[in-house]
Design a protein that fits this description.
- The protein is an alpha+beta fold.
- The chain contains five helices and three strands, in the order H-H-H-H-E-H-E-E.
- The protein folds into two domains: 65 residues, no CATH class; 35 residues, no CATH class.
- It has a three-stranded antiparallel sheet, covered by helices on one side.
- It is flat.
Length: 112
């Protein structure tokens, strides 16, 4: 981890200067780990998966990240139907996941 710190900070300073936003330089590498763990848990709802991604040996360390999850409208989804393979392909490319088939249509959904 220490090998990444210096190049990370240097790159962050360059980005902050290039964009003219000094707040970017205040983002720490550990902040990105927290963000990734929180988003991954929200996406999968699988704590062992998050534990593996973070490289934790003890699940107690991973549980710290789960207290951060409080997304509003968590159950709101967009639902669409596809009648052809071409329509289904477009929906999958847009991030929809297959749910089931009803009559001659395939149903897909994704979170808002």
């Amino acid at each position: 981890m220490r090998g990444f710190t210096r190049p990370f900070r240097r790159q962050w300073r360059r980005i902050a200067q290039k964009l003219g936003n000094p707040q970017i330089a205040q983002i720490h590498f550990h902040t990105l780990r927290h963000w990734k763990a929180t988003v991954e848990y929200h996406r999968t709802k699988h704590i062992l998966h998050v534990m593996k991604i973070l490289g934790h040996r003890n699940i107690k360390n991973t549980l710290i990240y789960m207290q951060l999850v409080n997304f509003e409208n968590e159950d709101e989804r967009i639902c669409k139907a596809a009648r052809t393979v071409k329509e289904a392909k477009v929906l999958i490319e847009q991030g929809f996941e297959y749910v089931c088939a009803v009559e001659d249509a395939k149903l897909f959904r994704k979170r808002k």
